[in-house]
Amino acid sequence: MVYYAGSVPRVFVDLLSYTGTKGGMETYTRELYRALGQLPGEWDYIGYVSREGAKRDLAWFPGEIVRSGISGENRFVWAWGELTRVARAARRAGADLVHAPATLGPRRTQMPTVVTMHDMLYWSHPELMSTPLYTAPVKWMERQAAGNAARIITISPTSQREISKYLRVPAERIDVIPLAGAAPSGVDRNLAGSEGPLILAMGNRRPHKNWAAIIRAVALLRPEDRPHIVITGGRGEDPLAPLVESLGVADSVDLRGWVDDDEVTRLYSIATALAIPSFAEGFSLPTLESMGAGLPALLSDIEVHRYVGGEAARYFDPEDDRSLASLLLAVATNPDLVADMTAAGHVRAAEFTWARTALETREVFERALVSDPR
């Protein structure tokens, strides 16, 4: 029997990291709670939002919003809020359960807590982290969150093994629930190739993303064979710009900052394929989004990409620029290959749904309430 104090379980949701700048983790939080709100059954959800998050459209959240007044962009204020303020606010709200959906969470709570840990990159690939000064504090906070958690949700078998390895959490306390991917609305794949062969790459410039591989790979092709490369997601002065200049591929590579929704829709419509050359990931949400939109995916050959892309994607060695170059050339010149990948991608993406993610997440909430009725 599920334990909770009242007639309806009250879930206090830690949204301090939700500021509009966190990419995939925010997509997960938003789509998960939109889907949780559509499931049958009575559950109360209380969102504890950052100062920045309170200014955004929160219509997707299926419950009450509590403004914390805490900045999710000021790392020190946010860390203090995660460790201490979330627990106090949950107690005041009479919560039966806390859910921290963005890897970190409170150090100690009076009620059971479920933490969604997306990856262990600070542990498995510390040399690829762009903020080395934060590595030790983040690892410490992850230990605290994991130690307090009644259950941990993660998004791939890779992350499950690494959470067990680095945080010494028994595997039976970790639930693997994959994400889903929703294609941007308004994508028109009838426009694919209308501006010539175009490879789309989207994401921040953190070193583990390995964007330089795409630039080096396209430089290996003859100028007349090169697809156009668009890499979005940069902020400020782009660290990839010197490489583009030194390899003489400025005519073929377009480095973008963050693009708005309309431009994302346009790029998804006209692109030939999506490329992701990462050395490591916790999951690969852009893969599902692209395949769902009808955009073939070229992925680095790492375990988590195989887990998401299956037989629908094509894979390359992230350390071998020539293997990526050959795939860039293939999708730019072989429409039959693109058509086959598009059809397979639709089928693969349909296996992952937010309704499934939400249902399995609520089942974890129920297990946490049963196993840890504080």
Automatic annotation (TrEMBL):
<feature type="domain" description="Glycosyl transferase family 1">
    <location>
        <begin position="193"/>
        <end position="345"/>
    </location>
</feature>
<dbReference type="InterPro" id="IPR028098">
    <property type="entry name" value="Glyco_trans_4-like_N"/>
</dbReference>
<feature type="domain" description="Glycosyltransferase subfamily 4-like N-terminal">
    <location>
        <begin position="23"/>
        <end position="178"/>
    </location>
</feature>
<dbReference type="Pfam" id="PF13439">
    <property type="entry name" value="Glyco_transf_4"/>
</dbReference>
<dbReference type="Pfam" id="PF00534">
    <property type="entry name" value="Glycos_transf_1"/>
</dbReference>
<protein>
    <submittedName>
        <fullName>Glycosyltransferase family 4 protein</fullName>
    </submittedName>
</protein>
<dbReference type="InterPro" id="IPR001296">
    <property type="entry name" value="Glyco_trans_1"/>
</dbReference>
<keyword id="KW-0328">Glycosyltransferase</keyword>
<keyword id="KW-0808">Transferase</keyword>
